[in-house]
Amino acid sequence: MSTWSTNLTFAPLALSSQDPLPALALSKLDDWGMVTLIGPDSKAYLQGQLTCDVVSLEAGKSTLAAHCDAKGKMRTVMRLFHIENGYGYLQRQSVMATQIPELKKYAVFSKTDITPSDNIVLGLSGEQAQAAIDAYFTEGDDVRHNDIATAVKVDAQRWFIISSPEHAETIAQHFAAEATLSDSTLWDLYDINAALPRVDSATELEFIPQAMNLQAVNGISFKKGCYTGQETVARAKYRGINKRAMYIVTGEAAQCPQAGDALERSVGENWRKGGSVITGFQFTDNQAMALVVLPNDLDEDTQFRFEAQPEAIWEKQSLPYTLDDDA
Predict the structure, then answer these.
(1) Does residue 167 fall inside a structural domain?
(2) Count of domains for the chain
(3) Is 187 annotated in some ligand binding site?
(4) CATH for 134
(5) Which of 177, 194, 211 represents a domain boundary (last residue)?
(6) Closest listed residue to residue 137, CA positions, set 124, 154, 125, 149
(7) Domain around 154
(8) Rounded Cα gap, residues 41 and 107, in angstroms
(9) Angle at 310 between CA 305 and CA 315, to 5 degrees
(10) Is residue 37 located within the same domain as residue 139?
(11) Nearest partner of 29 among 154, 137, 142, judged by Cα
């Protein structure tokens, strides 16, 4: 086990729901991992496995994508990008043991080597993150490399930073000089605010990509050729069979909502299961936020609650993007 972070303390931040986020924060993302595909057939192989258009992915860009089973249910949501001689992708550690063998299943017929990486994953966030990355990496694209690290842009205020265990402390110490240190829960909060999809073991093979809004964050190409699960994904778009979407909900909670937790919804004077939590964050003032997959035809005044705390009413919030699907 790597001990690179022994000299640094990455702990949960004590944030109330009214507190501003740190101008610059460095998070240790132990619950994220990297996989590489190296070899001349890697592009073609991934093109036949993922929802995104791998062929059109530019060298300096990244994209969200899903890897589905034959029924169109997601094994993972990943962030895919080019690395030297191939591709890398970042996904949740909790699905590594099940997703990688499925991705490898037909690779015996292709010249591509699919390997889980031991690289350390960090997250740099905040309004000063872009300037800090610009100062450390001389390249100007959304995927940047130097001799010891790779940085992958998520949005205007966030970057993944990936390095080998032997260089991780050097990189962390560099950014720690100006940044607040945090564990991965701060990254979860950013993902909730951005309504970015993810799949953990508790939600693996539960949802099709559109149920987590993947089409709204450019994670699905409806113009590429065949890939595993494409029939279901296309039918959800063109025949309107998808009845779910992912939403931000907020409310009072005694504990942080966890992936797979059930959220109940109001139906008249009764309550029924409403949806499944994708990820959650709890503030110090007992307020909390979560991403939840819910029916996409609910009334605007629908209320929500968790069975363990029925007196606390939750509400749906606005998404930072539109769910209109015209791609």
Answers:
(1) yes
(2) 2
(3) yes
(4) 3.30.70.1400
(5) 194
(6) 149
(7) 25-194
(8) 9
(9) 25
(10) yes
(11) 154
On whether the CB atoms of residues 118 and 151 are closer than 8 A, the answer is: no
CA-CA distance, 64 to 196, in Å (whole number)?
A: 9
Per-residue pLDDT band at 259 (split at 50, 70, 90):
very high
Q: Is the pLDDT confidence value at 2 over 70?
A: no
Q: Domain check: are 59 and 181 in the same one? A: yes
Residue 216's nearest CA partner among 322, 306, 289 is: 322
pLDDT at 64 over 70: yes
Question: 184 and 53 in one domain?
Answer: yes
Q: How many CB atoms lie within 10 A of CB 182?
A: 24
Residue 68: inside a domain = yes
- Residue 4: which pLDDT band, with cuts at 50, 70 and 90? confident
Contact 292, 277 (CB under 8 A): yes
Same domain, 67 and 136: yes
Residue 206 lies in a domain: no
CA–CA separation, 126 and 158 (whole Å): 7
pTM: 0.96
pLDDT of residue 325: 58
pLDDT tens, position by position, 276-311: 999 999 999 999 999 999 999 998 889 999 988 999
Token code pair at residue 96: 């590594």
Domain-terminating residue out of 136, 159, 194: 194
- Where does residue 61 rank: exposed (0-12), middle (13-18), buried (19+ CB within 10 A)? middle
Tell me if 4 is assigned to a ligand binding site: no
